[in-house]
Amino acid sequence: MDEFSVLVGGRAGDGINEAGMIIARLFNQLGYCLYQYLDYPSLIRGGHNFTIVRASDKKIGAHRDEVNFLLALNQETIDRHKWRLMESSVVIYDSDEVKSPVAGGFGLPLKTIAKDAGAPPIAKNAGLIGAFSKASGIEWDVTEQVLRKEIPKSIDENLEVARRGYSRIDGDDRLRVEKRSYPCCPVITGNELIGLGLLRGGLDAYVAYPMTPSSGVLHFLAKVASDFSIRVVHPENEIAVILMAQGFAYAGKRVALGTSGGGFCLMTEGMSLAGMAEMPLVVVVSMRAGPSTGVPTYTAQSDLHFVMNAGQGEFTRLVIAPGDLEQAYFWSATSLDLAWKYQVPAILLSDKTLSESAYSFNLEEARDIHEIAPVLWDGVGDYRRYARTLGGGISPLAFPPISGAVVKANGYAHLESGITAEDAGEVKAVQDKSLLKEKSLIEELEGLPAVKTYGDEGSSAALLCWGSNKGVCAELGDKYGLRVVQPVIMNPFPTSQFNEALQGVERTISVETNSTGQLARLIRSCGFEADDLILKYDARPFSVDDLEERILEVTR
Q: Residues 204, 255: contact at Cβ < 8 Å?
């Protein structure tokens, strides 16, 4: 077989995500490309958690509905997911917990095995992984190697539980995992890659109040802060976050901040301050289903127009929506450069799917990052923070304390010196400077991959997608000979590149995880039209099978 899907399920607190990640890394050792989807309710304990690990011999970015292996730590996992089983599927379950198994499954008393081995209860995961390895034909040496690397505590006890699980299962030649030749790449989450991209872009400080699903960026950067000599700060609320970040930027520190939709609501006045004061910020906004608290641990693409228009008044901002890990890495780094060159807030727009899912990351596809330098004051003459003489709407930067210069930042309309002004001519000049800056930014973006295409680039029918839907659309575009067009820059919209990508296209279908077609609305404002919409707004991402069915309905 060229592809496998494995579902692991249990309660919150059972270590479901960690078990899924270990299974993903088993496949990674055998030369497969990985995608791991994580599903969990907003409960600390209890509730049903599951993860689907998909392994393939080609690049993938979405899960399938059917699974080859169902690994169940409780009865609820069997009851909820038996519809996913195929005739050839293998079910392995904890017989201490599951009392109504499906016929033909393998039951192991995992809780008892863990207790007899002197291991903590959560070690039953190791027994499940050992049993899965044996059932799928993965050699014990490979299993032990991955477990030793991934389990930091009680490794000897966990290995003993895994050995006992391994020994109690018979292999199944129908589902034997053979070695493949996909390049050995790290399996990593989108949030971790955003953090690495920010570090690649020269990050000095990261400020955030934890909010799912962006919290992983905060946790990752806090873990590596001492290794990279960066400051990671957790203030008391989101208002403090964006104001503290502007303090870092004023002092000359490359700063990013993170939140989700509800937290970004609190930041909108600070966004306007950054727009008027020309403060360079990178804001990581990871979308979840709203409005209000909504469904806080699930996904949506419903905040595009919000982030494009948040804050009173009109000011230049950059909005970027990466669709995979390679784009997340590239644009996280590049967003810092662009924010600092043009002295604008840049928003890196992710969602729960991209942020918390794990993928195989191929660094070779993301290495080509060009340095974009800020314009710094040369120290000659009187310093004017908002000088209008250099062209392109960009003023030279200086940071306090600096000899011979007063560095002002002002949220009022202002003179070039930074002194407050209300004269009509000066107010107009401030706004003209912002408009000129946006024009210069648009010209800069023409030289960057602001729009990407996949699938059959000669097809007259095109799927339009943005953000995390890139993976599932690209896969189905290849399968059905459709062109796939993905704008990565959402504002200022790359009209020229988008128009070029649509040359020869006669029919467009916008694929989005929201209820109103926000990409379709955006492109309409730029002179383009989506002929059909495929929308999903149940707070879950498209699976390959789900979207395939919807595409066939639309294109019949």
A: yes
What architecture does CATH give domain 451-555? 3-Layer(aba) Sandwich (3.40)
Q: Taking the domains of the chain in order of start, what are their residue ranges?
A: 3-175, 187-365, 451-555
Peptide bond just before 487 cis, omega within 30 deg: no
Residues 366 and 326: beta-carbon distance below 8 Å: yes
Read off the pLDDT of residues 188-230 as tens digits, 9 standing for 90 and up: 999 999 999 999 999 999 999 999 999 999 999 999 999 999 9
Tokens at 152, concatenated: 């930091």
The identity of residue 369, as a single letter, is: I
The one-letter amino acid code at 496 reads S
Helix axes 190-200, 325-342, angle to 10 degrees: 40
- Token code pair at residue 130: 């050992």
Tokens, residue 213 = 């699903």
Do residues 90 and 70 touch, judged by C-beta distance below 8 A? yes
DSSP at 277:
H
* Domain 3-175 CATH class label: alpha beta
CATH architecture of 187-365: 3-Layer(aba) Sandwich (3.40)
Between vectors from CA 110 to CA 105 and to CA 111, what angle results, nearest 5°?
A: 140
pLDDT recorded at residue 171 = 67
- Mean pLDDT of the 313-318 span: 97
Bridge partners of residue 414, in order along the sequence: 420
What is the C-alpha to C-alpha distance for residues 11 and 9, in angstroms, rounded to an integer? 7
pLDDT in the model for residue 282: 98
d(CA 310, CA 319): 12
* pTM given for the model: 0.96
How far are the Cα atoms of 20, 81, 242, 470, 491 from residue 358, in angstroms, in the given order?
10, 21, 28, 15, 27
Q: What is the mean pLDDT of residues 418-437?
A: 96
Domain 3-175 shares a fold with domain 187-365: no
Q: Give the pLDDT confidence score for residue 172 in this predicted structure.
A: 65
**Phi, psi dihedral angles at 2 (to 5 degrees):** -95, -10
